[in-house]
Structures are given as structure tokens and as C-alpha cells.
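FORM 7B: Structural annotation worksheet

SECTION A. Query
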Amino acid sequence: MNEPTALLIIDVQIGLFNIKDFPIFQEEQLIKNIQTLLDKARKVKVPIFYIQHNDPKGKRLENGTENWKIRSEITPRFGDIIIQKYNSDSFLGTNLDEELHKRDITRLVIAGLATPMCIDTTVRSAVSHGYNVILIQDAHSTLDSEVLKASQIVAHHNDVLQWFSELKKAKEFEFFQ
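SECTION B. Predicted structure
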């Protein structure tokens, strides 16, 4: 399928990996799977968008702080696009849709954090904006909640979001441009 595609890496920021007593589910595998996607996308020159969350002053992901920075293992490169966001929806109040339209992108491959908030909201919003979406089922994650283990949250969202997106695994997915 030669549909114009972009890779969206959402909120893979230092501050989400250092919450005391709340580790990101399968953190190492998450980073490896995102690295795999980045390598595949770069080989065929698929545009890569980093979505970076900004919290208000004094909060965990405050703009410009160490916690706000993108994890070093997946640092953006020259030519990658960084979109700043201020809520769970990567489209709301950002120029993401405009930047995707400039490049005639119609399909989005989505990975990152956190599954029940920014991943879920962005997948649904992308569909509402008319994009075809592929959610990389082993390249998004979260932490335990007071009610569910992170593994349950990820599994639940993969189950629910299959109605809005196509699910693929990082190793199996291939980009074509």
C-alpha cells in the first residue's frame, strides 16, 4: 500500500519514565520497538513527527525542564518535525493537521505514551480528522493505575482501538513511500 504515511511518536519524554513506584510497562521493549519503527521510517524517508507534551509551570512535563525532553535513545534528527501540545489530543490547539496536509499525508502510524490518554485520544482524533491509522500495538505503553495493571490497560486499548485503527506489531510493520 503506497499511501502517503507519517510516523507519530507521542510523548516519549523523560518525565514519564521516572515516576517513583510507577514504571512504564515494558519500558525497554517499548523503546526498542520505537527505535525499530524510526529505523524503518528513515530508510524510506517517511516523515517523522514527534509530539511533545507541555505541562503548566511546576508540573512534571514543564516546557524546557529535563523531564520535558524526549528520551535520548529516540532523539529527533534534522528534518524531523516536533509538534508541541498542551492536552491529550495531538491535534487540538496544534499545527499537526496543517503540517500533515502540507505533506499530503493520509495515513498515520502511531506509537508512544500514554495509552489511555494521549494515544487513545490521538487515535480517535486522527480518525475524526480523516486519517487512516495504524496503531503499533507493541509500541505504546502506560503505567499501572489504581484500578488496572498497565498490561491490562494496553491490552484493553488494543482491543478497543482496533475498531478505529489497524493494529500491527513493530517488527512486522513495513513503511512504503
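SECTION C. Observations
The helical segments are 27-43, 96-102, 115-128, 150-161. The chain has a mean pLDDT of 97.

SECTION D. Sign-off
Analyst initials: ____
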